[in-house]
Amino acid sequence: MNLIFLGPPGSGKGTMATAVEKALGIPQISTGDMLRRHMREGTPLGIAAKSYVDKGELVPDDIVIGMVKERLHQPDCRNGYILDGFPRTVAQAEALGAIADIDTVVNFELSDEIIMRRLADRRVCPHGHGTFSAAGLGSEEVCPQCGAVLVHRHDDKEDTVRNRLNVYHTQTEPLIAYYLKSGKFLSIAMEGTVEDNRRTLMQALENAAKE
Ligand code: AMP
Known about the structure:
This protein has 211 residues and is an alpha/beta fold. It has one domain: P-loop containing nucleotide triphosphate hydrolases (Rossmann fold). The protein has nine helices and seven strands, in the order E-H-E-H-H-H-E-H-E-H-E-E-H-H-E-H. It has helices at residues 13-24, 31-41, 44-55, 61-72, 90-99, 112-121, 158-172, 174-180, 194-210, and strands spanning 2-6, 28-30, 81-84, 104-109, 122-124, 131-133, 185-189. The chain is globular, with a radius of gyration of 17 Å. 34% of the residues are buried. The mean pLDDT is 95. Bound molecules: adenosine monophosphate. Adenosine monophosphate binds at residues 9, 31-32, 35, 52-53, 56-59, 64, 85-86, 88, 92, 155, 164.
């Protein structure tokens, strides 16, 4: 099953992609995570991407498209994958359409107001063990899995989030109309708990697979 997870930053698509990866055994391909890894490792791609990511702007299409094409050729993608945060522009969707057959596009819906609150509270493990709510952690902001001090992503700070939401509304939201036409599109409201959202999503994917 080849899936696209679409939605504004902070809508929970990464958390849902991790859950679906576990449930269906297909890899989560997060372009944000891939870019951050390149930036950490100081690769030429990471160096080229950094100024965009830091400002909350989109990294140029050719860089991201090349990175995703290479990833989709890996053997673990043979039985399917979950694209988390890609495509984010119509040009990316067109490039993807030329190389992949997508089964379902899931659009995650959440208001800007809730997103602003969630991202102010979001902490991440620097070793990739997931995303946590600062409010749920108390004073010890450490990863429950590895003990590392959790970080508030630089681009989760208020001004950058505002810019990311702007970028989402102008450049990524048009993808809803783009994929609505395909008939493979479904929307999930993300106001509930992680567990409620996960259940709704799994049910919707099961129904979509039967069609
Ligand atoms: P994310 O972790 O998905 O919120 O992505 C973090 C940042 O990485 C974004 O704000 C962009 O700067 C960059 N990024 C991630 N995915 C893409 C994409 N598909 N196209 C362009 N830039 C991206």
